[in-house]
Design brief:
The complex is a heterodimer of chains A (about 800) and B (about 45).
Chain A: H1 2-13, H2 24-29, E1 40-42, E2 56-63, H3 68-79, E3 84-90, E4 95-100, H4 107-116, E5 120-123, H5 127-163, H6 171-192, H7 194-205, H8 212-231, H9 243-267, H10 269-275, E6 281-285, E7 291-295, E8 304-307, E9 316-321, E10 324-327, H11 329-332, E11 338-340, E12 345-346, E13 351-352, E14 357-363, H12 369-381, H13 386-413, H14 418-431, H15 434-455, E15 458-459, H16 463-469, E16 473-477, H17 478-482, E17 483-494, H18 500-511, H19 517-529, E18 535-543, E19 547-554, E20 562-567, H20 569-572, E21 585-591, E22 597-609, H21 613-622, E23 626-630, H22 635-645, E24 649-651, H23 656-668, E25 673-677, H24 683-688, E26 691-695, E27 708-710, H25 716-751, H26 757-780, H27 790-797, H28 799-802
Parallel strand pairs in A: 16-23, 16-25, 23-24, 25-26, 26-27
Antiparallel strand pairs in A: 1-2, 2-4, 2-5, 3-4, 6-7, 6-8, 8-14, 9-12, 9-14, 10-11, 10-13, 15-27, 17-22, 18-19, 19-20, 20-21, 21-22
Chain B: H1 4-27, H2 36-40
Classes of the chains: A alpha+beta (about 800), B mainly alpha (about 45).
Chain lengths: ~800, ~45
């Protein structure tokens, strides 16, 4: 095939092997009829372009396509297989839709044909969801186009009646124009208004009143009045027809709905963009060193995958080769891209920004932190905050009132002119907008949650945004929030003078075999001083919680081996009484052949205060908030930390009960308290606070019992979250006020007869759009958070990734 | 002015025809990927 030779050099350059040997097992698995529904559906006899009964429609992702021309090659290859009835390939989405007859061919057959043509097919598992969304969008656009186009034409026919003096227009001509308008209105009423009618009908059957009912009623009345006027010009309604009003307000309503759909996709959809980050497929290295495309769900721990720049990492893993920058904003809250080189970990859902890297997969699927975040955000997105419930409760009686008002208005005007009376009722029905009321709260809170998620704060509980906006006191728990999870070496005291480098190197050789915070602290100091690697340890044994023991010798093999112990005084074999210090200490001791221990050095450890702590506290104080510190640590340590961080109110030696009591005392003073803790040890305190943050990289997300989870290190997130919550509540209040004021002003106007139906339609469409646009501001410029991750926002919106 | 009696029904028919064209465009996916139609000319065969 000629295309293959054209396309092959392309593939060679990016490391994709042209024709990878088939993974026979995988494709024949797809021949099992039970697998078919996962990436397609059975064609009903009626659709699928005349496909005979029994045919299946399957959706696959095509790998190896580089240009639009490839799409045609793929289509040809698929169609050449007997039993394949049709194949359509979209070059933009790299997806194909294949209709095939199960009796004559099987998925593995046409997949084999694709492979012969130089491409690979993977079942598209999300085909249903994507297809449904696309159909919905197309249908909405199409309804809108029909309404818009017909509206223009109806206005042309209505124009002569507007400008003509009485008698100018012959009776026949007027009738002809009415007839023409009627014909053009038919598609608008029976097609474009379809959703309004079907929703209203559904709700009537279920004995509910919904927002579509008044609108549908208005449309039906207008059409009925105007139709009567068309066919019976001498009748009661014959004086005027209202096709122009009808088509126009339908058009405005549909415009509003269409824009609403798009905007909501973008604002609340910011959450979805985060959730749909993982790629469909990855490049996996095979036994022979070649790379092949496989679906993400086929990845196993231990697999080696190549991740290209611009792609998201599909699984947690360790970099084997290559240096790059990764954007981990969602997962760690780290706003600037982080360097990732051989040996470092990468997390699923973060983006590779710079260069291709080889990654060894360590965790897949539900084991990844990304999966936990997704589960957490999905549960939050389906919650209904208190204000939204309130609005929904108001909406129903409000709708009843609207129906009554319309009835009264019609009854009032009926004696003067029945047609005018009905049109006044229509205006009342159309102009009221309970949707603005019920959209006001959820739309604002969801876009705030989306903005927070992008900056690295996960909202577990939407309702908490309201509580957080009223907070006036922030209480910090010490460990893991103001300080890092780990520790830092504060002082190193060698037993003999001048041996700092030697003992540090020895200790580091031991420490690098342990994950204990003390070991990590020693290792970090050794790295900073550049002595790491001067000594190597053998036969390392760790007694969890106590210490390490190993044979240590110099890295170049010179000198003798030492038997060293690193750990508590007891572990090191030293006199336990030799630890008169105010902080935890770690000892390094050498043991001779007889088992006698000799102290080499002691390390005084202290908690590692986060660098941003003072700024974050200052920002909170600057925002008018009170900052308190409660800790279970010794008072001396707490006082030192409070001094460093600039916190005036502190309390040490707190048991969890003491913390709870202190919190309740603050609340008894009428304060609204936000608690910031590590989400594990202080669960009851977090639960008792008005709003709570769980902080720190080590929080297992599923267990954190806080309203907000901050997986990163940046304390500034608390400040930003509070600012954004205040902003969100301001938007909610604005929205509710606007919705109430709009309805309060427009309904009387409509009842008084000052509101033509088209203006009513325009008003309603604009009022709900305004509510959504107002909420969209939250996801654009959160106040007081200018540093809110321009990088990650840009990446989320870049076409390369959304495509 | 009698020509209007022909032209107005004709305009109605024309509107319906144009709607048919719009239907084809929307459901052919032309509004989803704007480049697609331009690229089609590059495909041979």
């Amino acid at each position: 095939m000629s295309k293959k030779s054209v396309a092959a050099p392309d593939r060679a350059t990016d490391g994709l092997q042209p024709v990878t040997p088939p993974e026979a097992v995988d494709e024949t698995l797809l021949d099992d009829p039970q697998e078919w529904p996962s990436f397609g559906r059975a064609c009903a006899p009626a659709d699928g372009g005349g496909a005979p009964a029994g045919a299946w429609e399957s959706h696959v992702v095509i790998q190896g396509m580089h240009c639009a021309a490839c799409a045609l090659t793929v289509e040809e290859a698929l169609r050449s297989v007997p039993g394949v009835q049709s194949a359509e390939v979209s070059a933009a989405s790299q997806r194909a839709r294949v209709v095939w007859q199960p009796g004559q061919t099987l998925p593995s057959h046409w997949m084999a044909a694709l492979r012969r043509a130089g491409y690979r097919a993977l079942p598209a598992l999300d085909a249903h969801a994507r297809g449904a969304r696309q159909r919905e969008h197309r249908q909405a656009l199409w309804r809108w186009l029909v309404a818009g186009f017909c509206m223009m034409q109806v206005m042309m026919y209505a124009w002569p009646a507007y400008v003509a003096d009485p008698g100018d227009l012959s009776l026949e001509m007027e009738r002809l124009l009415r007839w023409a308008s009627w014909v053009i209105s038919l598609p608008v009423v029976f097609f474009a208004c379809g959703p309004f009618f079907s929703n209203a009908l559904r709700d009537i059957r279920q004995r509910r009143i919904s927002m579509d009912l008044p609108v549908a009623l208005g449309m039906a009345i207008t059409f009925a009045v105007s139709t009567a006027g068309t066919f019976e010009p001498e009748g009661v309604f014959g004086r005027e027809v209202y096709f122009d009003s009808l088509t126009m307000f339908v058009f405005f309503l549909l415009t509003g709905r269409w824009l609403e759909l798009r905007l909501r996709d973008r604002t609340a959809g910011a959450l979805e963009a985060v959730l749909n980050r993982l790629p469909d497929s990855v490049l996996r290295r095979q036994a022979d060193g070649a790379f092949e495309r496989v679906a993400v769900r086929r990845l196993q721990p231990g697999d080696v995958v190549r991740v290209l720049p611009g792609e998201a990492f599909a699984a947690d893993g360790q970099v084997l080769e290559g240096h790059t920058l990764a954007d981990e904003a969602l997962l760690t809250g780290e706003s600037t891209p982080v360097r990732r080189g051989p040996g470092t970990r990468v997390v699923a859902g973060s983006y590779n920004l710079q260069a291709p890297v080889l990654v060894q997969v360590q965790g897949v699927g539900n084991d990844t932190r990304f999966a936990q975040i997704v589960a957490l955000m999905e549960s939050a997105a389906t919650q209904k905050p208190r204000l939204a419930q309130l609005a929904d409760r108001i909406a129903r009686p409000f709708l009843v009132l609207v129906l009554l008002a319309a009835l009264l208005a019609a009854a009032w005007w009926w004696p003067t002119d029945p047609a005018h009376a009905l049109m006044v009722a229509v205006a009342v029905l159309v102009v009221t907008c309970p949707c603005a009321l019920s959209l006001a709260t959820p739309v604002a809170m969801l876009s705030a949650a989306g903005a927070l998620a992008r900056s690295g704060v996960l909202v577990r509980n939407l309702q908490a945004l309201e509580s957080l906006s009223q907070v006036d006191t922030v209480v910090f728990d010490k460990t893991g929030t103001l300080t890092r999870d780990g520790m830092a070496v504060q002082a190193l005291q060698p037993a003999a003078e001048g041996q700092e480098r030697q003992v540090l190197g020895m200790a580091a050789a031991l420490a690098q075999h342990s994950l204990h915070p003390a070991s990590r602290a020693i290792l970090r100091l050794a790295q900073e001083q550049g002595v790491q690697g001067e000594w190597v340890a053998q036969d390392v044994q760790e007694e969890p919680g106590l210490g390490l023991r190993a044979q240590v010798r110099q890295a170049d093999g010179a000198g003798t081996a030492w038997t060293l112990r690193l750990g508590s005084a007891r572990h090191a074999g030293l006199d336990a009484g030799a630890a008169p210090a105010d902080g935890p200490q770690v000892f390094l001791a050498a043991t001779d052949a007889q088992g006698a221990a000799r102290e080499l050095a002691r390390f005084a450890l202290a908690e590692d205060v986060r660098a941003q702590t003072p700024q974050a506290v200052a920002a909170l104080l600057g925002a008018g908030l009170d900052v308190h510190l409660l800790s279970g640590d010794r008072s001396a340590a707490v006082q030192r930390l409070a001094g460093q961080a600039g916190i005036a109110h502190w309390q040490g030696d707190c048991s969890p009960d003491d913390k709870l009591r202190a919190l309740r005392a603050l609340q008894a003073q009428g304060r609204r308290v936000a608690m910031v803790g590590d989400g594990l040890n202080d669960g009851p305190v977090l639960a008792a606070a008005h709003a709570s943050f769980a902080f720190g990289r080590s929080v297992p997300l599923a267990q954190a019992r806080a309203d907000f989870v901050v997986p990163g290190e940046d304390l500034g997130q608390v400040v930003r979250a509070i600012a954004l919550a205040r902003q969100a509540l301001k938007v909610v209040r604005q929205n509710l006020w606007w919705a109430a004021a709009y309805n309060a002003a427009s309904v009387p106007l409509a009842i008084a007869g000052y509101m033509p139906a088209w203006l009513a339609g325009l008003g309603m469409a604009l009022s709900s759009l305004l509510v959504i646009l107002n909420a969209a501001r939250l996801s654009v410029t959160p106040q007081g958070a200018a540093a809110l991750l321009p990088a990650s926002v840009r990446i989320l919106h870049s076409p390369a990734i959304s495509a | 002015m009698d020509i209007l009696y022909l032209l107005i029904p004709l305009s109605v028919a024309l509107v319906l025809l144009i709607l048919l064209g719009l239907w084809w465009a929307v459901h052919g996916g032309q509004f989803e990927n704007v480049e697609q139609e331009g690229e089609r000319i590059l495909r041979d065969g």
